[in-house]
Amino acid sequence: MILETPPQIRPNIQELLDRSKTLIEEGKAFLQANGTFIELDNYLTIKRYCEKYGLQSESIVTNWIRRGVIAQEDIKVIEELNGLRLIKDKPYR
Taking CA atoms, which of 3, 36, 53, 87 is between 20 and 30 Å from 64? Predict the structure, then answer.
């Protein structure tokens, strides 16, 4: 069953969607201007990195970080998420 939106409500919905899109874009611009915007498309959590590259244990990646196999510029730490570490999505070994 498909519900039809009454014609008088449609402009309000479109107005809200347009305003939402504008606010999202403004938020992204603000975060980027303040240096807190991270493009997450190129980063993985340690767990996802292990799954993608077939590593048996997260401790392998943790050791790579500690020993410098993974460069510091390839690691992002998000303190707001309890220090979540993200690794740049590329093979290291």
Answer: 36
The residue whose two tokens read 């992204």 is 28
pLDDT in tens, 21-80: 898 888 777 777 776 666 677 899 999 999 999 999 999 999 999 999 999 999 988 877
Residues constituting the chain: 93
**What is the helix (H) or strand (E) element at residue 25, kind and residue range?**
helix 10-33
**0.70 surpassed by pTM:** no
Structure tokens at 68: 């410098």
Bridge partners, 76 (sequence order): 86
* Strands laid side by side in the 75-78 sheet: 43-45, 84-88, 75-78
